[in-house]
Structure formats: C-alpha cells, structure tokens
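Hi R.,

Here's the chain you asked about this morning:
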Amino acid sequence: MTLEYPIRRFGKIALPVSIGAALAAPFLLNLYLVRLFTIVYMFAVLSLSWNLLGGYAGYISFGNVVFFGIGAYTFGAFLTKLHVGFLPSMLMGGILVAAFALIIGQPLLRLRGHYFTVATFGIAEAVRSLASLDPLGITGGGKGMTLPMMAGEIVTVSRFFYFMMFALMIAAVLATYGIVHSRIGYGLVAIREDENAAAAIGICTSRCKTLAFTVSAGFTGLVGSVYAYWMTYIEPADVFHINISISMVIMVLLGGRGTILGPVIGAFGIELLSELVWRRFLEFHTLILGVIIVVVVLFMPKGFMDLRHQGRWKFSLRFLLGNVRKYKL
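And the predicted structure, written out as tokens:
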C-alpha cells in the first residue's frame, strides 16, 4: 500500500495552519507542553545551524556545542557583570560567537574529513576546560553562573521563551533557505560532492565554508544566550555537554541531511518520541529510543525527507525494503 499526495498542494494548507497552531499553542497548552515545545524549537535551530556546514558542505562537526556554550556565557557576562539588557546581551552572544567562528574557521576549515571532525571536538573540549578553570574570573568555574530571573508570572515567562525559540527557528529556516538558494548554497553542495573539482571550476570554497560556519555559529550562539536566561543558571558541564552536539547530528541525519525542513522534522521527531518513550518506559528509555533510531536509519538512510520524490510524498513497504537493497544495509 502506498500513501501519496502532491506536496505543493499540501504545503499551501499545512504551512499557514502549522504557523497558526504554533502561535496559538502557548495559550491553549499547559506549562509542561509549552516547555516541551520550547525545547523542540531550540533543538530545531541547533540542527538547522549544524546542517548548514555538516549537511550541505559535508563537513561533519562534533564541536558545535562550543558555540552554544560561549553564547550562553557571553550573554551571562553582559547581563550580570556589565548590566546590559536582555536583547543587547543576546545579540552580543550571537555576534561574538560568530566572530569567534570566523577566527578559528580560517585554520580549521583547511582540514577535511575525520581531521576536521576530531579538531572540532578538541576545540569544544578545550573551551569547556577553560570555562571550568575560569582563569579570567568570568564563568564562575565549577560553581557555575547564576543569572537573574525574568520578572513576571511563570505563565508569561514560559510564553516569552516559547516565542523566542519559535522566532529563532523561523529565522534559521529563512536564513537556510536564503543561503541554499544562492551561489553560496550551490557552492556548498559542490564542495560536498567534490571540493577539488569545485575549486577547479572557480568556486571560492574557503569563502563558502567560512560563511556557512559563521552563520551556523551565530545562530547557535543566539540559542545559547536565550537558553542561559531561560535556565537562570549555567555551568560548563551543562552548556558544553557533548550530548548537545550529538543530538544535533542525530536529528539532522534522521530528518534529512542537506535539506531545509529535515532538521526541523528530526528535532520534532526525536524530542517528542524521546518524551513519549521516557514517560511510558522509564527504565528502558535509552534502549527503546536507540532501537527506534537504528530501525529508521536502516530503512531510511537519507532521513524522512527521502520519502519526498519528484515533488510528492511517498511511503510504502516496497520503498523501505528498496532502501535496504539499494544501500546494501
């Protein structure tokens, strides 16, 4: 049996309905669900950011969490030590992280393959160690950093962070769309296929990679800033945790690497599925979730977006089994 329908016709209805439902959700749902969807939007932005370089250019990074952590601590430092307001502190979190990425990207993006992957992981661990030691007296070291709570009732505060993460997700989707449909985007895809050939035909590979790396870092830093204010307490072990980077990669791979909506679908799927499994099977949560991820990877190696073919969505047992034979899994 095959389920099939035109994606264009569906998109005209689904897009405004989805946005309308998302805008109305915090006024209709309880605080638990509002918090859950806030986390989903947060990871959607992180996955979209990772996908710019990892999905389109093929540069796999396990160190994007460093941008998240630096953004969180930059925001905290501006808010608590310089007494700057929320919005300027958040913007500085994104700007300084983007500047940091621009600086380290010059030598880092000269590496390829697993060398780049290992280097990004090493940088993330090095920065985490510096934050833990706190040589400049900014991060608070192992004691962490406490931020002032946002004034207002808990319902109002929850809605504020919900809309902040939702707005960042929309901005990340639009930025990805703009980059992908530009010369930079075509250059990133060419780099993923064959970087030497891309350079040979006149594509400035370094500029394409640096731009993607910088924009990716900027959005990740903005999310880290909002997260810090939301949590009101941050520590190196939390905001530099490797699981955040791993979650980005898994969500992109399950949703569809090198696609615009794939990371969003992956973030929704993983977070909502994880919450459902955790509530029903507390003791076997990790095992069951791992099995589900393995099954999805086996039957849909290119992620859920692989179900779209020639402008139409298709789902059938023949298609899934065909993937197993096609990729010799």
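Confidence is low (pLDDT under 50) at residues 1-8.

Let me know if you need anything else.
M.
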